[in-house]
Each structure stands twice: as C-alpha cells, then as structure tokens.
C-alpha cells in the first residue's frame, strides 16, 4: 500500500478583489501516490497549486473535494505522522537551535529530559552540535534550515513534507543541503515529498517528479538515477539527468505558453 | 554526516563579521551618555541663572528646590508622601498588567472577541478617562482604593491595545508551525503568540507607566489629602513654588528610573528582538 495517496483533490479559494469576489480553482482534481521510502518532488510553474497541494497533505488546509491518505488513514488535520519543513525555516526566534528542535516533542508531551536527549540526536544528525545554544538570528540561512529539518524529523514522522526548503539559500549552500538531505534519506529511509521550482533539484533528489499544471497533475516522470545517489556533480553528468532535465523543461515551457494570460 | 560543510559555513560567517568590524576610515567616537549629561548640566545651570532673577512666586530655581527636597527628606514628609503615592501606583499598575495582557491576547487571537469587545477598548483609549474621576470618588471614596482604580483604568488601555496589536502582528507562518506540530490553541498562545508579542507588550507597558503616573497625581489632586499630589496641591495653594516643584522633580526621577528598568527588562525577556530590530547599545 502506498504511504501517501492523493485522490482527486480539489481546492477552491475565494479571492476578495475590489471588483468583487473571485473564485480561484487552485486544484482541479489532482491524484498521485507516494510509496514508502520514496522521494517525490512536486514541481510546476508559479500558481500551479504545488504548495497548496503540500499544505493539504500536511492538513494545514482542507481540500474542497477529494481525499488524502497517509499510511492508510484519511487526513483530517495536522498529525505527528507528517513533519513539515517550511520555506523560510520559520524557527521561533526566542528559542535556541536545540529548543527549536524540541518544540514538536514538547507539543507531543514528551518529558523535558527525554526530549533534550532526543533533540540532541537530531541536532547531531544535521551537524549542528556546535550551534546548539545559538538563537536563530545567530545562525546562517543554511544552518536555520538544518534546524528546520531537524525539528520536523525529531517527531519521527512517517512522511517528511518540504515546501521549497532550499529556495531562499545561495547556490552553494543549497547544493550542500541537497547532499545532506540525500544522506539523511539514505540513513533514515524516510518518505519525502518536496515542493520545488528548481528543476535540477527535483531530478537530483527525487525518484519521481510530479509535474503540475493549473491545478492538476500533468505528468509524472520516473528518475532512474542510482540510489543512494553519489556526488551531485557526478549525477549532473549522467545522461539520465540531462535527458530528464530537457523533458521537464519542455513540459514546463508548454505550461508557460498556455498560462501566460492566466492568473499570474 | 561530515563536519566539513558546516565548519566551512562557520568560517564564512566569522570572516563576514570581521570584515564588517574593520574600520574603513577614522570616525569621531560617539558618546550619547556624555552628550545627555552635558545637556542636562547646561539646562540646570541656565535654569539656576535665570530662575534667580524671577519673582519666587512665579518660578523657582534648582538650588531652592534642592533645599526644599532636603528639608522634606529630613522631616520625613517626602518619604511618607512618596509611599502614599507609590503603593497605589504599584498596585494599580500591577492590576492593569494582569488584566491588560490577557485581554489583549484574547482580542488579537479570537475574531469574535475582537468583534464583540474591540470597540470598547478603542473607545476607552480615546476617551478622556480623567473626567471620570469625580464619579470614581463617589464609588470608591477618597482613600487607597480610588487611586488604585484610577491608575488601573488609565494604564490598562495602552497595555491592552499594544498586546492586541502585537498578537495581530505575529506572522501567520509561526502559528502554522504550531499547528503543524499539533499544538492546542492554548499551547500556541503560550508558546508562540505570547513570546512573539513580547516587544509590543513591553512598549505598551512603557507607555502605561506615563499614564499611570499622571493618573496617580490627578487622582491625588481630586482626593487632595495625601501623597505627592497632595503636597503639590497644598504648596501651590500657598504659593510655595519651590515646595510645589520638589515633588514634581521626585516624580520625574521615578518615571525615568522606571522606564530605564523596563528597558533593561525588555533586553532580558526579548533579547532576540533587540538584536534583530537594529537597536544597539552605544
């Protein structure tokens, strides 16, 4: 059975404009499945509904129609079976790195001593032992997002959900974190769904890439790069990489031509 | 996981910090405390010089006021009056903090509370509440209780309104962090909303100090028999200008000290805000 099943999910928004309310159909019946231990990237042009999709899987938004199942259970809200990594990390600025990782464990009701030990394990996993007592404003962008990843992993979810997690980072830090994410995946075998507009990132990280267009799934690409993935620079030299890169580019550029006069 | 990438990132940060601290050209050192002190000394000297040439009925000067302050300290009247004023001030202020912060949290967090009660808070803040003092005297008499009630009333609104604004300013994404870790509404309030609005709450408390001191003095004018406000009223009725100004100086010093202490408190409870918002020492 699939770890995550998205079945005909629809989402309508009402946008208040000076010219009156406008109904936006963000998702128009999208479906796909994610197997256990798989990394799936969701990509598409701005406004295609990829972030909305992730928020519905997380339970932060309710779908207008359709269902999401995680480990066979229908999603009705947020749960500890899913961990969310936000675009800009969204750490609590008054808490240290370690205390931020402890946040989810605290909400889960874990005792103070137990959660400390647990959080330290994940702080170590993302290589931030030396920064455990630093506040977010004393961390670099990459370090913040490492804490964000550790915070989500600490609650030991079945599925890790990531909303453009590396988009705000500089190119070198981004590549470093991509490699670290692959290492974490190799170690933990987590199921990961990552929303990204970076085509290279989608191909380098994912087993499958879900390409979305105006609220529905246009195509799902299988990426046959070896797992565990080697050094990212070597992956880029693979024909499998360049082949998929071109295919993805073509799919998205067909989108742009069509939606040029659309919502965005 | 390999240590080298993070170590590399660290070096980058350190390098940047050093580069930023390196002075590119010579600058004249800036000492705000020195400037403030010099300014105060000059103002006091000017006041002393011109104050001595004015009829003591209309004004006074620093040495005369200092003399009165000394005399009132020695005979104990200043201490007694200060206590009579400070106790209701502290009680009323504490009460307004205890009522104002939770009220502001509820207004900011729950839209129906805001819709139902927001209007009274906005109206209450804009209203000349001082005008209600005669009514308060009827309700609470002329003693301790009426001073507490008036101080509470006047300082409640700035604390409540600032907390309310602060809660509204908490980024939606931080609330979503709480939700995504299945935090209850109460847990979100305590662990996210309250700490995130601390800078606003502290600003409200600082505004409220000024309001509370005004409330205390005006309340004593109306009740007339006790406290620093009582001395001011009696002295001015007797045309003792220096004696009237002496407690005003004491109140001013109180206000400055309390505000400074609150600034220290803010640095202590929300150091992240001080460091991220561009306020820096010297």
- Rounded to the nearest angstrom, the radius of gyration of chain A is 19 Å
Please report the distance between the alpha carbons of the first and last residues of chain A. 37 Å
Tell me, briefly, the overall form of chain B.
Answer: flat
Strand content of chain A: 25-35%
Task: Give descriptors for this structure.
A: alpha/beta, six-stranded mixed β-sheet, four-stranded antiparallel β-sheet, B: 282 residues, mainly alpha, flat
Describe this structure in words.
Chain A has helices at residues 50-58, 97-108, 112-125, 141-154, 171-188, 199-205, 232-237, 239-259, and strands at 4-17, 20-34, 39-44, 65-70, 73-74, 82-85, 159-163, 191-195, 208-213, 216-222. With 264 residues, chain A is of the alpha/beta class. In chain A, β9 and β10 form a beta hairpin. The radius of gyration of chain A is 19 Å and the shape is globular. The relative contact order of chain A is 0.17. With 282 residues, chain B is mostly helical. Chain B is 80% helix and 0% strand. Chain B contains 12 helices and no strands. Classes of the chains: A alpha/beta (264), B mainly alpha (282). The interface between A and B is large, with 40 and 32 residues.
Summarize this structure briefly.
The complex is a heterodimer of chains A (264) and B (282). Helix content of chain A is 38%, strand content 27%.
Write the layout of secondary structure elements.
The complex is a heterodimer of chains A (264) and B (282).
Chain A: E1 4-17, E2 20-34, E3 39-44, H1 50-58, E4 65-70, E5 73-74, E6 82-85, H2 97-108, H3 112-125, H4 141-154, E7 159-163, H5 171-188, E8 191-195, H6 199-205, E9 208-213, E10 216-222, H7 232-237, H8 239-259
Chain B: H1 4-21, H2 32-51, H3 62-74, H4 77-109, H5 111-126, H6 133-140, H7 144-168, H8 172-180, H9 185-223, H10 227-237, H11 241-269, H12 271-276
Helix pairs in contact in B: 3-11, 4-5, 4-7, 4-9, 4-10, 5-7, 6-7, 7-9, 8-9, 9-10, 9-11, 10-11
